[in-house]
């Protein structure tokens, strides 16, 4: 029994020593100088207030004006696009939206990198398209960015998250509250965190 206690004590001593000398995150050393937002400082400031007054607020419902403003700031936007109130868009100059796209209330398009949304895509309430991430293996917590693509006919469910680098292929579905960390196959329904395929999507003209 004494031999067992000795081994246990030795284990905890080694664990304490290892913890003392293990590298730790230092956010004070964080640098993202390499990242270029793709617009001048002035343009970013003007967009910040435009986004705040016309997009993230709930008092301005006119979708035609919203589409006009997105195009004015460099976004490519198709026809028949519906943008509900309280939508947050990081950088419109890194956004492409196809025809007949629905973007629901409280959607956040955090497009530090390019986001491409195909035709007839539905992004439901509170969904997040998250192009940014951090390298947790480095003490400096370096910024990582990746593009997101939603192909034609995709449905992103309410409160779900699409992570950086993900391609949601044609007519795939990410169900409510799910998190897509990898590409979604075409005509497949995904659920969970991380999202896993649960069944095929069957479409009918009737």
What attributes does this structure have?
206 residues; seven-stranded mixed beta sheet; five-stranded parallel beta sheet; globular; alpha/beta; 24% strand; single chain; UDP N-Acetylglucosamine Acyltransferase, domain 1; 19 strands
Question: In words, what does this structure look like?
Answer:
The chain has one domain: UDP N-Acetylglucosamine Acyltransferase, domain 1 (3 Solenoid), CATH 2.160.10. The chain has three helices and 19 strands. The protein is globular. The protein has about 210 residues and is an alpha/beta fold. The strands form four sheets. A seven-stranded mixed β-sheet has the order 2-5-8-13-16-18-19.
Short description:
The protein is 22% helix and 24% strand. It has 206 residues and is α/β, with parallel strands linked by helices. It is globular, with a radius of gyration of 22 Å.
Report the major sheet: 7 strands, mixed
CATH superfamily: Hexapeptide repeat proteins
Radius of gyration: 22 Å
Unreliable runs, pLDDT <50, ≥5 residues?
none
Into how many domains do the coordinates divide?
Answer: 1
CATH class: Mainly Beta
Task: State the oligomer.
Answer: single chain
User: Which shape, going by the Cα principal axes?
Assistant: globular
Helical content class:
10-25%
Mean pLDDT: 92
């Amino acid at each position: 029994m004494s031999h067992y206690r000795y081994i246990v004590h030795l284990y905890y001593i080694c664990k304490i020593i290892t913890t003392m000398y293990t590298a730790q995150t230092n956010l004070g050393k964080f640098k993202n100088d390499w990242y270029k937002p793709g617009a001048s400082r002035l343009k970013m400031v003007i967009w910040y207030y435009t986004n705040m007054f016309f997009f993230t607020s709930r008092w301005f419902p006119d979708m035609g004006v919203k589409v006009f403003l997105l195009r004015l700031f460099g976004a490519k936007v198709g026809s028949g696009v519906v943008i509900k109130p309280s939508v947050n868009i990081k950088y419109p100059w890194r956004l492409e939206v196809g025809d007949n796209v629905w973007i629901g209330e409280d959607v956040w398009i955090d497009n530090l990198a390019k986001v491409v949304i195909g035709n007839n895509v539905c992004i439901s309430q509170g969904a997040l398209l998250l192009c940014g991430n951090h390298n947790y293996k480095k003490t400096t917590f370096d910024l990582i960015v990746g593009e997101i693509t939603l192909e034609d006919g995709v449905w992103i469910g309410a409160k779900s998250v699409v992570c950086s680098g993900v391609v949601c292929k044609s007519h795939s579905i990410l169900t409510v509250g799910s998190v897509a960390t990898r590409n979604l196959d075409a005509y497949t329904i995904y659920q969970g965190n991380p999202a896993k395929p649960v069944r095929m999507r069957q479409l009918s003209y009737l």
